[in-house]
Amino acid sequence: MPEIPAQPFPFAFEPGAVALIVIDMQRDFTEPGGFGESLGNDVSRVAAIVPTVKRLIAGCRAAGMPVIHTMECHRPDLSDCPPAKRLRGKPSLRIGDAGPMGRILVAGEPGTAILPELAPLPGEVVIEKPGKGAFYATPLSDELARLGIRQLVFAGVTTEVCVQTTMREANDRGFDCLLAEDATESYFPAFKAATLEMIRAQGAIVGWTAATDTILAGLQGGGD
Ligand code: C5J
């Protein structure tokens, strides 16, 4: 099998069975006035990865890989948002409240949309998820089975919340997981660093990590 140089050791991949999954690159997490900022975060950190995520998406599409997009969002009646989630913390705007980009994390609102630069192409799978993990209460498992996917390259935000949760869910379901180190970000640099460490610790207990350019070079080489 072709390999991508990665940590803690090379990631052997199966051409035709690997997809890119882009987690929650939504305005609500990356732009002022959204959910991320309402929690007191500086969103400029996560917004800075957009060009890198764009390059990764373009390279994966060029390599013929499926690209899957996720969005953290809830139904307008919030019936899929448990009080335990909605009432957590002391945000300036709670999920479902009206903000400058529409209702926070509600499906169909402007702020909930994926950033236009990273918009899904027609036919790409888009998973709307009510939880932090993309497998919980979604059709993701069925979509991956339909596409014949056994390995996932991860990008998106935030590293230690929705990205890590989904990676762990995927790892438990038997997928090999590779995280693009510079195509993911957290509001907290220390949390990102710790997440990368814990993912690849103990012989890739959750998965592998590598830089975007390394991943793209490896994928292109493997397609020859
Ligand atoms: C958070 C996410 N951080 N997409 N969501 O609430 O990581």
From TrEMBL:
<feature type="domain" description="Isochorismatase-like">
    <location>
        <begin position="19"/>
        <end position="207"/>
    </location>
</feature>
<dbReference type="InterPro" id="IPR050272">
    <property type="entry name" value="Isochorismatase-like_hydrls"/>
</dbReference>
<dbReference type="InterPro" id="IPR000868">
    <property type="entry name" value="Isochorismatase-like_dom"/>
</dbReference>
<dbReference type="GO" id="GO:0016787">
    <property type="term" value="F:hydrolase activity"/>
</dbReference>
<dbReference type="InterPro" id="IPR036380">
    <property type="entry name" value="Isochorismatase-like_sf"/>
</dbReference>
<dbReference type="Pfam" id="PF00857">
    <property type="entry name" value="Isochorismatase"/>
</dbReference>
<keyword id="KW-0378">Hydrolase</keyword>
<protein>
    <submittedName>
        <fullName>Cysteine hydrolase family protein</fullName>
    </submittedName>
</protein>
